[in-house]
Amino acid sequence: MDKICNFCGNKNFNSKQIQYIYKHNNRFLIVNDVPCEECEYCGEKYFKSHTLKKIEEDFLSVYSGSKKSREMITVPVEEFAALTL
Ligand SMILES: [Zn+2]
Question: How many helices (H) and strands (E) does the chain have?
């Protein structure tokens, strides 16, 4: 891949698969094993535009009800000001 990191200028990237959390209007979609290129130096992750497009389209399908997601999880939610530790 012939590019440089926008953040640190490094030219070396590792191909990885990561868990991507898509968030829109306080709704979430978690997609596992999403391919990306990770900057070897600062760890910034880069995704192909068609990869992000696919995730966005899946999000719309799931939330419009035209598709059932593979799995549903319950996620705990906190307010920082209410944390006691
Ligand atoms: Zn970098």
Answer: 1, 3
pTM: 0.86
33 C-alpha to center of ligand 1: Å?
21
pLDDT by position in tens, the chain (length 85) = 478 999 999 999 999 999 999 999 999 999 999 999 999 999 999 999 999 999 999 999 999 999 999 999 999 999 999 999 8
Tell me yes or no: is domain 13-82 CATH 3.10.20.
Answer: yes
Q: Where do the structural domains in the chain lie, given as residue ranges?
A: 13-82
With residue 59 as reference, give the H or E element that holds it.
Answer: helix 49-64
Query: If you measure from the C-alpha of residue 8 to the centroid of ligand 1, how many angstroms do you get, rounded to a whole number?
Result: 4
